[in-house]
């Protein structure tokens, strides 16, 4: 029991995610959006506000049918699963809090998750991207410390397999350039150490020397106004260099993390080690990259074997 519950159960649940589960702000945002979306659907389609303490399995099944059958703005299966995950998680919280006796979502069936292999860059494409960050353009008026930042950004992302939010949260005290290691706070507040190869160490050292050290607590990566870089800004910067390298500008920074994992497995790293490096809680999250490696092996086989 957590005592008297506030009137707005969604707010109480999101506060719980933040304070007790240490959920990322993206999880908080996505779950809040999903729950409020359900409340809007309930009000518009059933003609009354959604009372989370009185909802039953039939209400939830009706919502799943709505999500699966809507004609406009069709959702893929993973988007539906995200919405249902938020609803299930809220009900589990309400049961633990003693607000409701039984979880109506316990028997709710979900559509099967769409199986998509991670998209990644080949080793040569990664090199093309990095080459684009090293090119000198006489007409480019960008300050030298910002050019150095861009090189360090992508070298660090790829070298350590970081999530983009982990990258943006790095502080000076989190990086040991002598040891070539970065301390990262990942999902669920789980801490891990990520190795950095020599190119990443060198580019990060160059950047920090040009920018200037500001103290252990200072965020490493800044925007041009010398405030912390956002994940959206990293995407914008990457898009510029993808275009310069002649690569698909729709690729996201997370694809460098996919590339990191795929290249490790392709070159003989064991699955457990890759799991640790990625900071995955479950091995099943890492196993998807083995399918990518198998696909690569098949391509090599078909190309090289005379009787393929």
CATH fold node name of the largest domain: hpI Integrase, Chain A
Radius of gyration over alpha carbons?
23 Å
What value does the average pLDDT take? 86
Q: Which structural class should the secondary elements be placed in?
A: mainly alpha
Quaternary: single chain
Q: Poorly predicted ranges (pLDDT <50, ≥5 residues)?
A: 1-5
CATH superfamily of the largest domain: Intergrase catalytic core
Shape estimate: globular
Please give the order of strands in the largest beta sheet. 1-2-3
Q: How many β-strand stretches?
A: 3
CATH architecture assignment of the largest domain: Orthogonal Bundle
Determine and state the CATH class of the largest domain: Mainly Alpha
Question: Number of helix segments?
Answer: 12
Number of domains: 2
Spell the H/E element sequence.
Answer: HHHHHHHEEEHHHHH
Short descriptors:
308 residues, mainly alpha, 2 domains, 3 strands, disordered N terminus
Task: Please describe the topology of this protein.
Layout: H1 9-19, H2 25-46, H3 57-69, H4 77-96, H5 123-134, H6 144-160, H7 164-169, E1 175-176, E2 181-185, E3 191-195, H8 198-211, H9 231-245, H10 254-266, H11 271-278, H12 283-304
Antiparallel strand pairs: 1-2, 2-3
Report what the structure shows:
- The protein is mainly alpha-helical.
- It has two domains: 9-96, Orthogonal Bundle (DNA polymerase, domain 1), CATH 1.10.150; 123-303, hpI Integrase, Chain A.
- It is 56% helix and 4% strand.
- It contains twelve helices and three strands.
- The protein has a three-stranded antiparallel beta sheet.
- Strand 2 and strand 3 form a beta hairpin.
- It is globular.
- Mean pLDDT is 86; it is low at 1-5.
